[in-house]
Amino acid sequence: MQETKTTASETVMVNQYVNGVLDPGLEMLGPVKSGGHIVAHTAPGCWGPMITPCIRGGHEVTKPVYVEGAEPGDAIVIRIKSIEVTSLATSSGNDSPVEGRFLGDPFIAVKCPGCGTLYPETVIKGTGSEAIRCANCDADVTPFVFTNGYTMFMGEKGDVGVTLNREAAEMIAQNGRAYMKTPDASVQNPIVTFAPHDLVGTIARMRPFLGQLGTTPSRPIPDSHNAGDFGSFLIDAPHEYVSTQEELDTHRTDGHMDISRVRAGSVLICPVKVPGGGVYLGDMHAMQGDGEIAGHTADVAGIVHLEVELVKGLNNAGPILLPNVEDLPYTAKPFTAEERLAAQKIADKWNVPQLEESLPVSFVGTGPTLNAATDNGLERAAALFDVTVPEIMNRATITGSIEIGRHPGVVTVTFLAPESYLKKAQLYDLVKAQYR
């Protein structure tokens, strides 16, 4: 475990990546001061790492950053100052695992079908879905292929992307790292190498966000499995990252959320489970609708600016999100002066002594199913505010919403929380700064 360093920096620049596993026993970057900044060059997530067997987690997130003074039970507030897409093009789509090329989980334990090497190094030969070859025996080693895929080129203004035809996709495939602007230290194979082109001429609006943002779990966990849904694949798995349900619930920090509201201007309050917290990020997406129902979206490289602040003793079990106002459900937006005046008239008529003062808050819940994830989010909110789950259910129903981050099991439980609850939980100043 890393010991606290004596000199913390105002800004930490990050361009190093893990091999797909978030390991609290490895040295972190930093430390960074509370109130300081992290500026990171993130590598594309999902498909590139998925076709790069030496990456053991399904993603290629940044090396974690140590936050000065952070101890288990604390929280790290992460303000997303900016997110900029640098990739010119990407490819994505539905996936289908290739049997015989992995040990239990194709995201983690890839095994060469030719020589049997686990986590084999690879070389790229040509383009198309058979281009990823084992460096040892030259066998086709990709553990995933597309069922329906596309290649997308991004607009110069970062406003839209357009899916390309076969000729254009194959041209991009021949120089994949250049078009994807893959960071120098990234080892992933560029997914544009496959040149998928099932969708042609489709326009998509860009609104980039981070699919991975959080703190380091308290045991080694593959990065894409640091959540209750994908993490369930670790239970009784036949590879070295096997876990029990109890171990997963104890150690995960739910940094892999794929919640499209985790974008510039939002605030994420993350639990600390290891000394220093270990803030990491990656899996930037150019756009995504709620649910990421295709399983994947347009993964891109980019530059991210974060501001971090330490909160002592918050003891939040999972991430708490403060979305941008425009991303809040209609029922969870702060009340206008006109709405409060109308409410006061009702209160006066019926002798209600005092109206609640409230502000929005959004609890992240994860689990193997959407129902389990919803229960998890409700329970986290109830525990932090020391109230019952039925009360949170009522508040989320009439003053909020349950929104899907990722299918099959990431949600946000959003509602208007009484200011008295927020003050008791040490959240009031943070939430007030975001919404007033």
From TrEMBL:
<protein>
    <submittedName>
        <fullName>Acetamidase/formamidase family protein</fullName>
    </submittedName>
</protein>
<dbReference type="Pfam" id="PF03069">
    <property type="entry name" value="FmdA_AmdA"/>
</dbReference>
<dbReference type="InterPro" id="IPR004304">
    <property type="entry name" value="FmdA_AmdA"/>
</dbReference>
